[in-house]
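Thread amino acids onto this structure.
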């Protein structure tokens, strides 16, 4: 599999170890030792994925991610040595796609990276799939693209996948368990993540996130996308 990864990591040895394992898999990578350098790399080269360290000199990983998400939906895998970072990322809704704690096994890390790249690739391959229109929104299921009145709404990969799952199954109620299974698959994790993602998506698409029109909460059953909002598939 090919692909290009940007490794943002200030511990050079660790960055080089990740780079070595990626290269064994045929995946090219660059190492940026600061978040600021990361942005410079990104302005010159197009990447498929970023691995992001949190403790960095200068701008830290959280600030980087926040700034990044204003203009990009590239998949981000956070590598963190700090306990509680995952909670902060989820709590602040920063839009990371995966989280791996240090110390990690390079083999496991590369497997996770491959899984993300494969997912992005296979989605690109199925570009024939129809767009779904609801109200003034246009969702391209395989293009990972959501527009409102022609203007792009930036969603992280997982935010998009949760929304897509619900939009593609309108009128059906899904428990957080169902959604976790559908979107995160066999990966381990915390089911409460789903509620966090629903909140984040609502903030981006609902007029009043506390009184939603699209993704409704049905007490005791879970979440349902209001099928009356679907206009057509084109
Ligand atoms: Ca560090």
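Threaded sequence (234 positions):
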């Amino acid at each position: 599999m090919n692909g290009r990864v940007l490794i943002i990591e200030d511990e050079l040895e660790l960055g080089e170890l990740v780079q070595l394992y990626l290269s064994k898999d045929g995946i090219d990578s660059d190492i940026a030792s600061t978040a600021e350098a990361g942005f410079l790399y990104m302005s010159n080269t197009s990447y498929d994925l970023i691995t992001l360290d949190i403790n960095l000199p200068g701008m830290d990983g959280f600030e980087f991610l926040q700034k990044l998400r204003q203009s990009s939906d590239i998949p981000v895998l956070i590598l963190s040595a700090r306990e509680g970072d995952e909670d902060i990322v989820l709590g602040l809704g920063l839009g990371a796609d995966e989280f791996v704690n240090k110390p990690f096994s390079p083999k496991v890390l590369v497997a996770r990276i491959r899984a993300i790249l494969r997912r992005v690739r296979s989605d690109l391959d199925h570009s024939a799939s129809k767009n779904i229109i609801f109200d003034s929104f246009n969702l391209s299921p395989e293009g990972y693209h959501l527009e409102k009145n022609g203007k792009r709404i930036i969603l992280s990969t997982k935010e998009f996948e949760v929304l897509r799952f619900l939009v593609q199954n309108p009128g059906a109620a899904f428990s957080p368990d169902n959604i976790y299974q559908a979107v995160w698959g066999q990966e381990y994790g915390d089911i409460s993540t789903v509620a966090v993602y629903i909140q984040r998506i609502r903030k981006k698409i609902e007029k009043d996130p506390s009184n939603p029109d699209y993704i409704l909460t049905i007490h005791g059953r879970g979440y349902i996308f209001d099928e009356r909002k679907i206009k057509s598939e084109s």
